[in-house]
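User: Quick one: structure for sequence A, then sequence B.

Assistant: Sequence A:
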Amino acid sequence: MPDPSPTITEHVDVVIVGAGLSGIGAAHHLQTKCPDLTYTILEGRDSIGGTWDLFRYPGVRSDSDMLTLGYRLRPWAGSAAIADGPSILRYVRDTAREQGIDRRIQFGRRVVRAEWSSVDSRWTLQIQQGEDAVRMTCRFLYCCSGYYRYDKGFQPDWPGVDSFTGQLVHPQEWPADLDHAGKKVVVIGSGATAMTLVPAMARTADGVTLVQRSPTYVISLPAEDAFNDRARRILPAGPAFLMSRWKNVLTTMASYRITRRWPKAAKKFLLRGVRRQLPPGFDVATHFTPRYNPWDQRLCVVPDGDLFRSLSDGTATMVTDQIAEFVPTGVRLASGDVLEADIVVTATGLNLLAFGGMQLSVDGQDVDLPASMAYKSMMLAGVPNFAFAIGYTNASWTLKVDLTSEYVCRLLNLMREKHYAAAVPVADPSVPGVQFLDFAAGYVRRSVKDFPQQGTVAPWRVTMNYLRDLPALRFGSITEQMEFRSVQPPIGVGSRVSGGTGSEPRRRS
């Protein structure tokens, strides 16, 4: 742990935590909409890109279209709508370089603790930099670290795993020198990572077997967006992007709403699409028919049906069963069958980590995250001058993160205009708390208890609806259930400003 009293080295108006897709986008918004504020980005790793720099496994790609996963302020110009990981990484890094954001990033600095002082109206950050401890201060703290744990993925504790004589690999820790050509490969998992790995490795491996405990809904979408291609040929770049982006937003939202309203019909539609792309007699009931309804978990997108082609041409096979144990030559299934493997890839999921593991403290009192409540999906009740970026689970991550950054900029500009020292959401004790993410994915169920709660009504409810969030966050009230402090006394002392539901704050009597 860091020394509790290293020298304070720097002070800025805003600290952004994380230099991934969210953090670079947040910086773009901040320097565009709040040009007079100073900021820096603290990145715990040594490079830009976050998830897109971390994951290096074969075939890594987006599971959302790039017209909505890309930034609104810097439209995606590539031809592929479902893009590969290296292309997305270049896009994030190019954005940072072109906007001068890369010069504001401090690498190898992981924030382990953030302490708010109402006396000083500022955060003091305790930062780990290698073996050294560093402290810096800021007026506003914006956490853009996502919710994945970057240092370790999830892997079940299978019996006999140490006896396996081949190579065991988790996608989050993919070796740069791993050569799977001519090897027998077993991929364990049923999510987007597994569905991505199988066709990519099947091109050169001596057979790839996908082992899943239970099926997932899989849908094939074109890798390129024909509508966008036509629009770009006919219209100027700006209008073409807006038309294509809104087409994708509305299509995604409509399909989600229809699926949730008529799950039986949606299930039949999805399974019919799977059957059309597989050989006659393929056991779709066993391998592609989940026990849950569509969108209880995120749908797996396969571009141009690449997974189905691998299963059809025999370069890949699928087994739906449970792993009983590892043996020296591979894995033994619950059925008793042994799958021989030179390489076993454990695409068994990720671990979640709230705010990158950073501990928050307000006036000497540590914030108990599971007991706290999220405000507008981006702030915490009782925690001043703090925001976090969490994307959608049913649409592109960046759609929500962009709106969050816009709201944060509006809040910062209001505080600057009115000379407010702090803004803190005020908890409503009549609003009950419920699970932060209403999502049935395994990685959520394992870790959601460590996250804040959400409320059952606005502004405490975590919404997953872009059309509802857009007017609320881009144009709606900033002062709703928000308290503004105009001077710098300890909490409970001195002058404050309390916001109502209107567009301007009112002074508390």
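Sequence B:
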Amino acid sequence: MRRNRIGLLIVVTVVMVFASWQIALAFSINAFTSRVSPSDEHGPTEPSLAVDRSTGTVYAAWQGPTRMARSDDGGRTWTQLVPNTLGRDWGDVHVRVGGKTHCACETSTCIPNRHRVYLSVLERTPLTLQVRVAWSDDRGANWSSNYAAAVNP
């Protein structure tokens, strides 16, 4: 009799764990279904994602032309970012989150204790296969750029 109860308890536990896992999976899939790129943009390619682990902010970048977006709520809503220091991209768009910003007090281009966001892209102009790197210290509102981080002649 006791064996039957233990067996039943194990079966019920397995079923509950499986059901909880299915519910969690369904929630996580539904939580990240909002469109990231603007609705008037067709054919964005080569997406790149990065997460600021200190705040949970998600950054997405893609080419066609190079665009970015930021989500502060786990991907439910997105704020479009315009890295205006970049030209016409050609491919290999990457976004990453680095170390803390260098400013001690908030300015128009820097927020203290936030993490710098980096964006790299291959471009065609002014030189063929030029790598450009842009960065932002204010979560993507303003950008600085290295106009020729690397060039392949």
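The longest strand covers residues 89-100. The mean pLDDT is 76.

User: Thanks, that's what I needed.
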